[in-house]
Design a protein that fits this description.
Layout: E1 2-14, E2 17-19, E3 25-29, H1 30-36, E4 43-48, E5 54-62, E6 69-72, E7 84-94, H2 95-98, E8 104-108, E9 114-118
Parallel strand pairs: 1-8, 2-6, 3-5
Antiparallel strand pairs: 1-7, 3-6, 4-5, 4-7, 8-9
Length: 126
Amino acid sequence: MHLTLLKAKIHRATVTHSELNYEGSVAIDGLLLDATGIREFEQVHVWDVTNGSRFTTYAIRADEGSGIISLNGGAARHVQVGDLVIIAAFAQLGADEAATFQPDLVYVDAGNRITHTNHSIPKQAA
């Protein structure tokens, strides 16, 4: 049996650009890609915290340290510059590997600079 688990996420990044007439993708600051292990051209899910929109695209590398989070092509219709988004990637794992797997979680400030990382999500309080 294979399970689909959260591999990595960038939590509450700020959309810096939106380019409708560009090939579809999300350009992500290379430092954020490196910190999460998300590879260029890897499928990612984008969840817009601001407006509730959810869609799937693929990651491309933006300049390291640029802070860029740019939604391009059709994805540009789902966001506005300034929106907060969560970008997530998933992996297929066997049951044995899934038992010990921990995701790479990256948290950013308003400029999309890394504030901290983690490998687990805090338990939700009632």
